[in-house]
Amino acid sequence: MQTKVRTEKMFIAGEWVSGKETFNVKNPQNSQVIAKVPLASSKDMLKAIETAQDVFQHLSSWPAHERIKVLNGAADYIEGNHETYAKTIALEGSKTINEARGEVKRAVQTIRISAEEVRRIRGETINFDQREGSENRTGYHYRFPIGVIGAITPFNDPLNLVAHKVGPALAAGNPVVVKPASATPLSALLLAHAFDFAGVPKGFLSVVPGAGKDIGEPLVTHPAVKMISFTGGLDAGKKIAHQAGLKKVGMELGSNSPVIVLKDACMAEAVANSVSGAFSAAGQNCIGVQRILVETPVYHEFVSSFTERTKELQTGDKMSEWTDIGPMINEKEARRVEDWVQEAVYEGAVIETGGIRNGAFYEPTVLTNVSSDSKIYKEEVFGPVVLIEAVKDLQEAVKRSNEVNYGLQAGIFTKNIDNAFYAVHHLHAGGVMVNDSSDYRIDEMPFGGVKGSGLGREGVRHAINEMTEPKVVCFKLS
């Protein structure tokens, strides 16, 4: 069935405006055009940034109670239009309708948490009299908003990852300019509708869709932009960090997440959670399970159970309630994953199940006997492929886990508390999930990684800390 093509406007400095040119947003499942979206120019981006800077400088204050009202109002709007948001996420991206509904729920939570955290942006008193000669001084420090935040967001969570940048920025009192992924700009524009409805001050939010080559560099390099918050690939992150110069950067750059399964683990739980963690959102998930390291005594049992569970997954129409896995974001990405798998097979890997591509669909794939020199072993596959290997003990599993240049999250399944704490202290990652796969997150926890997985931390309160600075106040008393 042909989907009606929507014509969208972009949200610049509090106004809904058309562009001189447009680009097509397609449903990756069938390549049908679902919307025409303005192709913003560098001039559009500059207007968004400069208006944001002007409003920030001249607004005498944006009281906490008003920020709370706007954030809760936006959350209410999204909640009241839940299915519209879910269908948009599913149509423009890779998620099934059930996965999309879950993302909408999380986005509402992210924005509500942002409203709650407005109340907790606090400083503290300072005991200046700890220094001899300062007995007549008293004071404190408080946190202040740093200014315009530039947000660059990916396709895989097109609503909630935008909310994770917009919510904390506005909670802290900062204007924010969003450059959404060109594959999935509709969800970000719908988020702007929610904040516009809720009464966000004019100029405090812009969503500017378009080509990175035209509008990305102005956003990253403009001196009025005081922080860049980026979620995406490592190579793009390196380029942005180089361009940004002397300003704050927060970066979540993906991973190659390991899960360790020890011989004392609950096998059914380890299999179920790891299958879900590997293949949700068609594997296009920065904390998705990519490598599973299984202790030798239970290796063959685990591979057999994991493979059988994977074969039960239903790949197909994203809008069906019965579908587990939809397409990848486009056929080009599916071909890339296909090439990586074929390269690994050439180098000795065995396909236990999957390994078949049909357009943008790539079947959930389980590989064993993968060489540690293979690209798919060392890099982020960002697709529905998981590698399973045998290890002799926990120490080898941790060593192998740490060999790659990523460290976002990891998981371990064990009933032994000593083993759990060994993994916690020795895995090089921003988060270790015990008796869960790497694919577990709540929106309040500090989220980020080490090595090539990024800089700084997201999670609402932690993002607010990144988007504010402390100011010291000291009174010398007579």
From TrEMBL:
InterPro entries: Ald_DH/histidinol_DH, Ald_DH_C, Ald_DH_N, Aldehyde_DH_dom, ALDH-related_metabolic_enz
Superkingdom to which the source organism belongs: Bacteria
UniProt GO MF annotations: lactaldehyde dehydrogenase (NAD+) activity
Gene3D superfamilies according to UniProt: Aldehyde Dehydrogenase, Chain A, domain 1, Aldehyde Dehydrogenase, Chain A, domain 2
Chain ranges of the Aldehyde dehydrogenase domain: 16-473
Keywords (A to Z) from UniProt: Oxidoreductase
Family: Belongs to the aldehyde dehydrogenase family.
Protein's name in the database: Glyceraldehyde-3-phosphate dehydrogenase (NADP+)
Record organism: Salipaludibacillus aurantiacus
